[in-house]
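Z., the sequence and structure:
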Amino acid sequence: EMGATSLSVPQQQVQLDAPGMLAETAEYMAGGKRPARVYRVVNGIAVLPVTGTLVHRLGGMRPVSGMTGYDGMVACLQQAMA
């Protein structure tokens, strides 16, 4: 949860409140769109990418930073198990 209470999209002249943002996200995900897989599957086994140093928390940074966060590994594992 980021705590955002509204979102303005000036290009589309749209102002969304928190429930509107949730509805928009749910509609997008219901459209059959899924996030790209960040793991490989080899012989039915998910292979999670780990690059560089393992750190406690990396947040939104990708492995191009030279590190992999445990939080990112957990998210990748959850995606593979879904």
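The chain has a mean pLDDT of 76. The chain has two domains: 1-33, 36-82.

Let me know what you think.
H.
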